[in-house]
Amino acid sequence: MGKMNRFEDYDCSGGCPVENALEQISGKWKGLIIYHLLGGTLRFNELRRRLGTVTQRTLTKQLRELEEAGILTREVYAVVPPKVEYSLTEKGQKLQAVVEGLHAWGIAFPTPRAAVAEE
Amino acid sequence: MGKMNRFEDYDCSGGCPVENALEQISGKWKGLIIYHLLGGTLRFNELRRRLGTVTQRTLTKQLRELEEAGILTREVYAVVPPKVEYSLTEKGQKLQAVVEGLHAWGIAFPTPRAAVAEE
DNA sequence: CCGTATCCATGAAGATACTG
DNA sequence: CAGTATCTTCATGGATACGG
């Protein structure tokens, strides 16, 4: 016992941890958002700039979903001009190892952009 | 130097490692497929059973995409009835830490299924 | 057993314009 | 600055039926 074969009886009908996890962070920009927030709190437009090409509508939506998942918090300051800050919750910070693992893997194994002009 | 602020100048216009990595493994069943293959080679229908509710068409497609990304290999045996085996490549196996991290996180933080009947 | 071939519904996300 | 409000496009993935 102890180790056992943890891959044997992994019936995923009805939801399983990996699927569950992916569900919460799947979305075109979510991984990236989390990665950037690992560096600390960011305002809406700071985040926007870092992501490069995301639209306001989309960024807002992804942030709201991450908020609902309990991965980040949204803090609104009653000032003018408006100021809204996003930070990771503890739950979100616990993704640090995973996201940095993805980052490292992404460097080690870039997308194979078709084996053209090769041969 | 050395550490520096690696979050500061992380301009993702034009593709960045995290985005790149996510691109290769995003798909409704891909994370799960990789997870199951961490336990070793599997045949098409074994995989199918483990995923629970995936259709043939969809599973085939996700497998082909993972193959094209170089994450797994597809070995066809010229026997009848047909036999096709899927296994992770080295590139795929390097995702082990990430996927197991997701698995652990998914257990620790299930999806917050609305705070109903709670209060 | 391991797929293809069709057809189709859904929703994710971009473009664009406007507002407190 | 930080969003809404619309409208539209497109890819994902399910359902179903058939084939080597």
Description:
Chains A, B: Keywords: DNA-binding, Transcription, Transcription regulation. Chains A, B: One of its GO terms (molecular function) is DNA binding. Chains A, B: It comes from Shimia isoporae. Two copies of one chain form a homodimer. Chain A has helices at residues 17-25, 30-37, 44-51, 56-68, 90-93, 96-108, and strands at residues 42-43, 72-77, 83-88. Chain A has one domain (17-105): Orthogonal Bundle (Arc Repressor Mutant, subunit A). Chain A has six helices and three strands; from the N terminus they run H-H-E-H-H-E-E-H-H. The model of chain A is unreliable at 1-9 and 115-119 (pLDDT under 50). By secondary structure, the first copy, chain A, is an alpha+beta fold. The longest helix of chain A has 13 residues, at 56-68. At the A-B interface, helix 1, helix 2 and helix 6 of A face helix 1, helix 2 and helix 6 of B. Chain A binds a DNA duplex (20 and 20 nucleotides) through residues 27-28, 43-45, 48, 53-58, 60-62, 76, 80-84.
Beta-strand share of residues of chain A: 5-15%
Looking at the structure, the CATH topology of chain A is Arc Repressor Mutant, subunit A
Architecture (CATH level 2) name of chain A:
Orthogonal Bundle
Largest interface: A-B, 51 and 51 residues
Could you state the CATH homologous superfamily of chain A? Winged helix-like DNA-binding domain superfamily/Winged helix DNA-binding domain
Number of H/I helices of chain A: 6
Computed CA radius of gyration of chain A, to the nearest angstrom: 18 Å
List unreliable stretches of 5+ residues of chain A. Answer: 1-9, 115-119
Mean of residue pLDDT of chain A? 87
Number of domains of chain A: 1
Shape of chain A: globular
Q: Give the distance, in angstroms, between the N- and C-terminal Cα atoms of chain A.
A: 50 Å
Number-wise, the strands of chain A total: 3
Oligomer: homodimer
Give the SSE string of chain A: HHEHHEEHH
Biggest sheet statistics of chain A: 3 strands, antiparallel
Helix coverage percent of chain A: 40-55%
Instruction: Assign the structural class of chain A, choosing from mainly alpha, mainly beta, alpha/beta, alpha+beta, or little secondary structure.
Output: alpha+beta
Query: Strand order of the main beta sheet of chain A, please?
Result: 1-3-2
CATH top-level class of chain A: Mainly Alpha
